[in-house]
Structures are given as structure tokens and as C-alpha cells.
Specification:
The protein has 317 residues and is mainly β. It has a single domain, classed as Clam (outer membrane lipoprotein receptor (LolB), chain A). 11% of the residues lie in helices and 32% in strands. Strands 1, 2, 3, 4, 5, 6, 7, 8, 9, 10, 11, 12 and 13 form a 13-stranded mixed sheet that branches. The longest helix is centred in the N-terminal third of the chain and has 8 residues. The radius of gyration is 19 Å and the shape is globular. The two termini are 15 Å apart.
Length: 317
């Protein structure tokens, strides 16, 4: 959602704050190039159509943060695709002042079934099937600044190796190689990507970097006036542990998960400078077909392009 989205709310709350606000490339109306780009993401052709995952009964009631973190580890086990409208809000700190920045668009997420992913220890198999395990795309189409609202199309795509930003106003593509060739990465892991949308996170990785508590769903809102849409959610409150990189970027992170399926509904990060970024997913749907035009990272004809290899992209972060 933001460089706010790059470290802790990963590739999610960090990229946005630092100037990587997500923009993606779905259903592009620009003509693709005649020569192959540096990378083209595989298409999730086998994604099941209009089928919600077969879940058992609603998860047992969760009473503390450790129970929630353990449950979140497997919350995505039946999910291959996830789509939702998305609203990203960036609020400046009191010193800077100014209007809130609100971007609206759509998120697409694809997770390859685990049985089709090559074993990490089998190098020859991995070389023969180097498909990424997780892809995402975010397309923002509307921008609001105070009382001003206008069209502003930006697309962000992660294809397993490259994070590609496309600005339709300036006709400019910026490619950042954020994963070494041959390696795998989770683009939405907490602290690894541009949006705070952690799905299926490992408990150990979170408790190593954060102090986690289970907070009332209304905690964190002025006078506890939380939106009614959050009433049936668990709130995970995270504070960076001393000495962690996240502590240099964030004061705290809050994530609200739906009780029914433990999918994230709202994520908010307060940064060290007092600014806030927030990502809201109002209508998540899982295991539905994704258009063929999603996850296309080709540069449209006539556009300018900048390519940063892994070392350059890592230095920028």
C-alpha cells in the first residue's frame, strides 16, 4: 500500500510511506511491447472459478494474541486467489499538516497451491519450475486530496521477482528487482511488501520482531468509535521490539482480522514521524477467477522505463 509498505506492513505499510504507494497493472489499455520485458509473470490459469474454500466450522473463539498468531499460520491454506476493493489512506503528521491522501482501487492476490511449488532442497526441480508461489497486483484508479477528487491511475505488480510500478499520468514504469533470481518471497508478509495485508504469517517471525497483544476491536479509534464493520473482528496490536529494524520505521501496527475466516479487513501503521497509513479491504472474495490481464508486467509501447537490479533496489530500501 507503501517505501511505507516495504518493511513491516510489508512490502505493505512501509513502501507507501516512503514513496512506493501502490499502483498496479490490471486491464491495461496501453499496447504491450513487441519484445519480451525483463520479466513476465505466470498466469494463474488453474484458479478455480466462483468457488469459496470449503472451510470447516467457524474458528474457535480466540482469547489472546498467541492463539490468534497460531491460527493465522494456516488461515490461508485453502486460498488460491483473493480479490477485493481497496482503500489506502495516508495521513500526514501534525507538524507537516495538509490533507489526507486517499486512493481507491482493487487488489488481486494469487497463491500457488503448495503441492505445485518445487521443493526448496531440490535445486534441479526448482530450476525446471521456477514459478513464484505468491503474486499480487494493486490498481488505484481514484485519488482524493481533501475536497478534491480525480482520476489517477497507478498500478503495482509483484510477479515473484520484480516489483513493477506503472504511472499512467507520466507514462513511466519503474522496475525494482526485490527478490534474487531463483529465490522465493512472500510479497505480503509482514515487513516484506508494499501493503499491510499479511496472510498466513509465521508466528515465530512476528513475535521475534514485535510485542503482540489482542486488543478490543474498538481500541485505537477516537473515543472508541470504531466502524460497525469491525465489530466481528479480532484486532492484533503490534509494537516493534527494541533493536528491530521495524522500530526505526514504526511506532505501532494494528491489524483487524475477520472472525469468520481470519482474513485481514483493516491494517493501520503509525510511523515514527507520527504519520499514519491505513489499508481497508471492504469486500474480500476468495478462489474466484482472475482476469488474464492481471499480473502483466510488460512495459507499454512508448513509455519510459527505469530498471533497478537487486543490489540497487536493496540499497534504496
Amino acid at each position: 500500500m507503501m517505501q511505507t509498505c516495504v518493511r513491516v506492513l510489508a512490502f505493505s505499510a512501509a513502501c507507501c510511506a516512503a514513496g512506493w504507494p501502490g499502483v498496479l497493472l490490471a486491464q491495461s489499455d496501453a499496447t504491450p511491447p513487441t519484445t519480451p520485458p525483463p520479466t513476465t509473470a505466470p498466469q494463474p490459469a488453474n484458479a478455480p472459478a466462483d468457488r469459496q474454500p470449503e472451510r470447516a466450522a467457524e474458528p474457535a473463539k480466540i482469547t489472546d494474541a498467541d492463539q490468534l498468531l497460531r491460527a493465522l499460520e494456516t488461515a490461508d491454506k485453502d486460498i488460491t486467489t483473493l480479490t477485493s476493493a481497496i482503500r489506502y489512506t495516508k495521513k500526514p503528521n501534525e507538524l507537516v499538516g495538509g490533507d489526507d491522501e486517499v486512493r481507491e482501487g482493487r487488489l488481486w492476490f494469487f497463491a500457488r497451491p503448495s503441492e505445485s511449488a518445487p521443493p526448496a532442497e531440490n535445486a534441479s526441480s526448482a530450476a525446471a519450475d521456477p514459478r513464484p508461489n505468491r503474486l499480487f497486483q494493486i490498481e488505484f484508479t481514484r485519488l482524493s486530496l481533501g475536497n478534491t477528487r480525480r482520476d489517477d491511475r497507478r498500478i503495482w505488480v509483484f510477479d515473484g521477482r520484480w516489483l513493477v510500478e506503472m504511472d499512467f499520468q507520466t507514462r513511466f514504469v519503474h522496475r525494482r528487482e526485490v527478490v534474487r533470481p531463483g529465490e522465493q518471497a512472500d510479497p505480503l508478509a509482514l515487513g516484506q511488501g508494499p501493503l499491510p495485508i499479511p496472510i498466513g504469517q509465521k508466528r515465530e517471525k512476528i513475535v521475534e520482531r514485535f510485542e503482540a497483544t489482542l486488543a478490543p476491536f474498538s481500541d485505537g479509534f477516537d473515543q472508541d468509535k470504531a466502524p460497525p464493520s469491525l465489530a466481528e473482528t479480532y484486532q492484533l496490536h503490534l509494537k516493534p521490539r527494541p533493536g528491530m529494524q521495524e522500530g526505526r520505521d514504526f511506532r505501532e501496527v494494528r491489524i483487524w482480522y475477520r472472525k469468520s475466516d481470519l482474513l485481514p479487513r483493516l491494517a493501520r501503521a503509525i510511523h515514527k514521524d507520527g504519520s499514519t497509513t491505513e489499508v481497508f479491504l471492504p469486500d474480500m472474495q476468495v478462489n474466484q477467477d482472475i482476469p488474464d490481464t492481471v499480473f502483466d508486467t510488460r512495459t507499454p509501447l512508448g513509455w519510459a522505463e527505469q530498471i533497478d537490479d537487486f543490489r540497487k533496489a536493496a540499497a534504496d530500501r
